[in-house]
Design brief:
Oligomer: single chain
Number of strands: 11
CATH architecture of the largest domain: 3-Layer(aba) Sandwich
Bound molecules: iron/sulfur cluster
Strand order of the largest sheet: 1-2-6-7-8-9
């Protein structure tokens, strides 16, 4: 497939990363997500490399993202009963929000609580594991031209400077040609370059490393063992948690698989959305309820005569959710 939209390309890069991570250093257990980051910087594709045993322990906390307020509670919940204000570090926001988060955490079985007069006490159910090994950012640019290379260079420089990611990559499509070396020279040397050839669909061999990235986790001159500051560590964990809960197939929640024109098409080992009316991969923005060609699947598809309860739209959404589950299941520790 030659991707005709950056969105379609992004999905193929996500699937490639799921199949082939790490592209130059051999297989590493990882989860993949897209469109995550901070207020200042949103990454196209995010790969979170995980420790398999710790990842299994993380899964015991459920399938949903643990958001930043909940993380404050879950990471610091004590082994023995304690008043939440004694047990948790001082937040830089009012305690009443922490109290709400403690209740929310208890409702989700992330911690347990009990009342002692007016005081809410909490205790952990299990320790929150240190499951994130590395966070990798990939920028996707199927058609790299001079102005795109300029913009990307700025963004990648920002990634290098903040050290939020351990590695930054650019993914670009070659369709048989070499990428213009002059464009690559614009990019910071720390960023890796991955040239993809998805003309025959996606598999684990459909990309080549054109430039190896540097490890950004330590500033130049820092020795081994130098750690990031706690605030950066927390931000990385928040991104990893969002990646865990969201995966990269979450477009099923914003696009319209319940439209009769919506299809999933196979591109090698990837499934990508396809609009039969527009004859292309629709963007997430155009494939919405306001699309002029949106046509709800007929009610008959959802009842008699359709083998999947709820009709094809619901079936597609379930299929994509199952794929995310399967990828999480693939990560197992050797002791499992
Ligand atoms: S017609 Fe519009 S809503 Fe329907 S699948 Fe195509 S882009 Fe999506």
């Amino acid at each position: 497939m030659t991707p005709d939209a950056e969105f379609g390309y992004e999905l193929l890069v996500c699937r490639y990363a799921e199949l082939a991570w790490h592209p130059s250093e051999g297989p590493r257990p990882a989860i993949v997500s897209r469109q995550l980051g901070t207020e200042r910087r949103r990454w196209d594709t995010v790969v979170v490399e995980v420790d398999p045993a710790a990842f299994s322990a993380r899964r015991a906390f459920g399938d949903r993202t643990i958001d930043s307020d909940l993380l404050h509670v879950v990471r610091h919940a004590p082994a023995e009963w304690a008043w939440y204000r004694d047990a948790l570090p001082d937040p830089d926001y009012p305690w009443r929000y922490v109290r709400q988060a403690v209740h929310r955490a208890a409702e989700r079985d992330l911690v347990e609580t009990r009342r002692d007069g007016n005081r809410v006490r909490l205790r952990r159910l299990r320790p929150y594991p240190d499951w994130v090994e590395r966070v990798v950012a990939i920028e996707n640019k199927p058609n790299l031209d001079a102005s795109a290379a300029d913009r990307l260079a700025d963004q990648l420089r920002h990634d290098v400077a903040t050290g939020l990611a351990d590695e930054a990559w650019l993914a670009t499509e070659t369709t048989g040609d070499r990428v213009e070396p002059a464009l690559l020279r614009e990019l910071p040397v720390e960023a890796g370059v991955l040239t993809t050839d998805f003309a025959g669909g996606v598999d684990a061999d459909s990309a080549t490393v054109a430039w190896h990235p540097s490890d950004l986790s330590r500033p130049a001159g820092a020795g081994r063992g130098d750690r990031r500051d706690p605030e950066t560590e927390t931000r990385r964990l928040e991104i990893a948690e969002r990646a865990y809960g969201k995966g990269w197939r979450s477009y099923r929640e914003t696009m319209r698989p319940d439209c009769r024109h919506f299809e999933l098409r196979r591109e090698g080992r990837a499934l990508v959305p396809y609009c039969a009316a527009k004859r292309k991969v629709p963007t997430a923005r155009e494939c919405s309820g306001s699309c002029p060609e949106f046509s709800p699947e007929p009610p008959a598809w959802r009842t008699n005569g359709w083998p999947i309860a709820g009709g094809p739209g619901k079936g597609i959404a379930r299929l994509l959710a199952r794929r995310r589950e399967r990828e999480r299941d693939r990560i197992r520790s050797e002791d499992d």
